[in-house]
Structure formats: structure tokens, C-alpha cells
Amino acid sequence: MAKPLSETLRKSFEASAELLRSGRWAFRLAWRSHRLFLIGRIVCALLVGLVPAAFAIMIRGLVNAVVLAAGQSEPDLSSVFPWLVAGLIVTASDVVSRMFDRYAEARFEDDFDLDVTSSIMEHADRLDIGYFEGAQFQDTLERARQNTTFHLVGLLASSLSFITHSIQILSLTSILFVLEPLALLALLPFALAHFLFQWRISKRFYEDERTRATKRRWTRYFTTLVLTREQVPEVKLLDLGPVVVERYRRLMSDFRDRNRLRHVRTFVGGSLFAVLTTLAVYFMFGRVVSRVIAGDLSVGDIAVFAMAALRLRNALESVVLSSTRGMTQALYISNLREFLDVKPVIQRTTGKTTGITRGAIEVHNVTFTYPDAKRPTLQGVSLRIEAGEIVALVGRNGAGKTTLVHLLARFYDPDDGSILIDGQDLRALSQRYLHERIGFVFQHPGRYETTARENIAYGKWRTLLANGSGEIHSIAERAGIAPMIEGLPEGYDTQLGREFGSIDLSGGQWQQIAIARALARDAALLILDEPAASLDAEAEYQLFCSSRRLAEGRTTILISHRFSTVSMADRIIVMDRGRVVETGTHGELLAMNGYYATLYSFQQRQMEMGLPEAD
Predict the structure, then answer these.
(1) Of 193, 274, 491, 538, which has the fewest Cβ atoms less than 10 A away?
(2) 270 near 320, Cβ under 8 Å?
(3) pTM to 2 decimals?
């Protein structure tokens, strides 16, 4: 069913407005980066735009001067030299202007790449964690990262090219109008039709690319499976390579086939425009030749018309391509603007920056649902943790334990209810300040590709990176990992990780580094979310024993599936299906003979059968 004309006009107007906004945004960025270079490029575009007309006028004058001199018994070349000098100046100006433009474009590309990539990283750092867990946001991010620097530089180049060729069209048409007014009527309709054709193809290609964001993320995922160190062993063992490659080829083949169709259409449309305009030019050229023979025009006018008409045809084609290319690039830039327009719900630096001293926690009737999830992960959770208390969270996978501690760290805000620390609602606090007062060891902590020293220093990098060697050594001693680090080839200066170095740690050693990093923080609250997932039961038990000492009065929340460890906590909070179902000490919970006792009995039977404790 055809769309109403009003709807089509409305969408066209909105698209044009978006193009203008993206164009203004790109030029403001260029102006801030290098305004002198931008002015220089605009001047060069104006000069290059005038070159064809100036050269045509020079050729006309030179041909007529040569014809006049050749007809004399004693040729006088004095009238020829000024035209030769003028040609030299025009040619030199053209060459220098083009060289400067290429130099300035390279400068812009380097600066745009730095500025744009930094802006994407900085903006991503400001956004809430919840954004990164939604497929729709991942598509937005994918589109924003899609050669944005290339499109910014391209938009600037296309705009300057449009200026250059528009000036060429205006100056050349002025010349042709004097010689043969019908030339304009013969060329302009073809140019308009070609513009509409190219714009339609470019817009359709952009729309295709926009819908490909999810598929492009799939292609990157498939290449990751067969190219990254973590994935390769299992992929090889299962012989998944053919499956992965086939799925990658299927997606990329679809991209290729759609692109091939676009290339064919572009070729056919461009060839048709070239043939029709060339025929029109030579038809008009025949008319000019006949007028020269009739004596209405000079011999030099033939050269002027031939050069001006052919350059005008090329300029028309160039202005069509540069304008449609520029509009397409503006559409791509709108993807970056769409990403940069995403605003965080939780502001990191606004709010109170004092008041967390003891780490007492109060959770009042909290309900929380993850983005795009159909059911709440937490439902009406209420609990209290006293300052300095060591509390263990227990429950099956999916019970909501990790979600609860993520809310305590304010990675998210609850849908309903409130969370207080030392009597203050987390939403009243600066998120950055709150994070500075929390030490957090995640289930899968960061394995930073840097030195052992910096891996620990990242816990409080603002003070430890610059001059904190002594404190870093002290933290490593307290965490019990100093002997392990000192045994490395270069001690604390050993580059860790296989991405850029040759020394890798075991999963348990990385976990111990992460614990030391958490201890580096001036934390009132210490959260250990299965901190020993890579350790055996004995190592975890020793870790927890040392953690009691390392906590030094900090409120500590431990998540673990091993009852031999959680039984040492001051109090145990049992969760099931997003609710708190039991609370008490290990002995009290066993005496209740409820849910905790059932989980404990199940693990005891596993141990009696010689099976490892559940992780």
C-alpha cells in the first residue's frame, strides 16, 4: 500500500533536518580541532573550484594569441607570454591547493580518530551497567563504532568537494552560456535525475547497514570463537570450527550478495548518466563547431567549449556523488550522535561525598527487574547488616545473591524500595564516592594486561599509580601474595597476561590479585562475590580465614556455595527465588531444619560420595 504524500514529505523533512544537524555537529568538531586548517581547506576548495574556468579562459586567450601571431609575417610572441604565465600560475595554484588539502585531511583524520574514539570511550564509561546488558544498546554501540572517524573525515571532504564542484559548475556554466546557452538545458536534467538515483541507492544502503548491526556483532563473535586464546581449546576439542565458519560465511555471504546488487545498480546508473551526458556534450560541440565555421565564434572558442563542457559534465557528476556521499556519511554520523545522546540514569559525580564510615546496611522492601527481563530478580527483599559484621549470602544459582550486591554497589537502582548505608539512601550519594568506599571482588575479576604492581594499584589508582610502591608491597603482604609476586621473573614489574607478555597466572592467582586490589581501597564495605571460585575448598577456607583478619572491622558480605566457608560467617542470609527466606548463624539455621539445612545436607551427601563441594 502506497504511503500518503504527507507522510512521505514529513519523513523527507525529518531526514533533511537530521542531515543538517549531523553536518553542523561535524563542522563544529572540525572547527574546535583545527579551525585554521578548516579555513585553509575552504580557501583551497574555492581556489580549486575556480581553476577549470580560469584554465579555460587562459586556453582561449592562448589559442587566439597563437593564431594571431601565426598569421603575421613577423610573429610577435609578446601577446603569448602573458597567457603562458597565467597558465603557470593557475596550474601551480591548483597543485599546491590540492597538496595542502591532502595534508590537512590527514591531520584531521588523526585528530578525529583520537577525539571520536576517546569520546566514545569516555561516554561509555559514564553510562550505567544496565545499558551494556541490552541487545538494543549493543546495536547502538556497534553502529557508533562503525568507522565513525572515516565518515567524519569523509563528510568534511565531501562537503568541500561539493563546494569545489559547485563553483566549477557556476563558473563553467557562465562561460558556456555565452558560447552555447542550450548546453545547460542538455546537461542539467540528467544531473538532477542522477542525483535522485544516487541518493536513493545511498539511503537504501545506509538503511541496510543500520539493520545489520546485530548480524555484524554475530560475525565478530564467530571470529572470536576461533581466534581468541580462551575459546580456542574447547572449539578445537569439539571440532566446532566448521560449524562456526559456516555460520560466519552464511552471514557474510548475505552481506556480499546485497552489496553486489547495489554495486550493479550504481554501475548501471552511473554508466547511463555518463553516456547520455557525453552524447549531449558532443551534440553541443557540433553546434559550436558549425558556428565557428560560420564565423560567429573564434577558433579559441572551440577549445574553451570543449574543455568547459567536458569539465562541466565531470563537475556535475562529482557534485552529485559528493552530495549523496556526504548525505550518507551524515547519516552514519547520526549513529554516533545517537550513542552520545544516551544519558546515564545514575550520575556518577552528583550527590553527597561524605557519610560512609561504618558500613551498616539496610535494605527495605527492594524489588528489581533487569532490563528486558519478564520477571523480577528480587522481590520485596528486606534485611539489615550491622557495621563490621561478616555476613554470608547463600542460595542456589539464580536466587538473586549477585543481583543484591550489585544493587548495594549501585550498579543499578531498585524498581521499588530503598537501600541505605550508614543511614543514607544510596541514591543521595555520589556514585564515585560510594565506589571508593567499597571493595568488590567479582566472580570473574579483571585480568588486566599490565604489571603485577599496577594490577594491585588499580584498586586505588589515583594515589597508588603515581607513588605507591611501598603501600602496594604492604597490601600484597597483608593479602598473602607477596611471595607469589616476588617469585615472578621481574617481581612486581612483571607484565601479566599473554596478550602482550609471556607470563600468565592461574585462575586462583588472578583471584588473589583481585582480592589484593579490593583491599587497596579505603573501603567500609567489602563484597566477596564467590572470590574463590577458582580455588579448591582448602584454599578458599584459608582465604576466608585471612579475610576475617584483612577486613579489619569492615562490613563484609561473602557469597559462596561452600558451606565449610559460609559456616564461619557471623550470620548467614539464605535466599531463594529473589527473596530472603531464612537468616541466622550456621547452627541456628541447621536447627531450624529448613531450606538451608536441606542445601547443607545435599552438599554433605556429595562429600560422602567423594564428589567435590558444589560451586
Answers:
(1) 538
(2) no
(3) 0.70
